[in-house]
Each structure stands twice: as structure tokens, then as C-alpha cells.
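Email to the structure team, subject: Transcriptional regulator, ArsR family model.

Hi all, the expression group asked for a predicted structure before they design truncation constructs. Nothing fancy, just the C-alpha cells so they can compare against earlier work. One-line instruction: predict Transcriptional regulator, ArsR family, return C-alpha cells.
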Amino acid sequence: MDKYNEHVGLFKALSDVNRIMIVDMLSCGELCACKILEKFNITQPTLSHHMKILCDCGLTNARKEGKWMYYSLNDHVVQDFKKFLCSITSSKEDCICKGGNCCCGKE
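Reply from the structure team: attached below.
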């Protein structure tokens, strides 16, 4: 259950189209908040809200330089999340449905 609980925050953070698009933008490298704002029809406080959610779950890093905030993807968290997503979407010997209490009939 722990391996599922540790990734719930990432799924919640990615449950918003703007945040998914921000992650896509950051896949090209670090960006200033002002560059992210240029692509959206949202206010700076709304962007800050989205970035707080992405930072709180560990998916993004933030750093301040002068008056500007810069954001980047946390590569370690991204790789870990990719592995987890692959593990829950692939057939495997130790699948939870093989524990005898499966509701899907795959025992």
C-alpha cells in the first residue's frame, strides 16, 4: 500500500490540464515564471498556486533569482514516477490481483 500512497500526490498534482501543460513545458528545461505565464491566460497568483502544488509533490524544483522564480523538473522524481507508472500498467507475477482477493476474476 505504501508504494501507492507515495505517488498519490503526483497523480493529484497532474489532475489539472494547466499543470500537465506546465510539466510539458518544463520538459524542455528550466523556465522563468514569466515565460510560463506567457503561454497561459491566468494571473500570476494562479500560476503560483499551480507551481506550489507541483513543488509540494516534489515534481518540480523552484529557485529564486532576484525577483524572478525559476522552475525545473525534479529528474529523480520524474524517473521514479515513470517506473511506478510502468509497474502498475504492466503484467507481472506479483500483481495485486493474484493475492486471492481480486474483484476482477484474475486469480
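Residues 102-107 have pLDDT under 50 and may be disordered. The helical segments are 2-13, 17-26, 33-38, 44-56, 75-88. Ping us if the truncation boundaries need rechecking.
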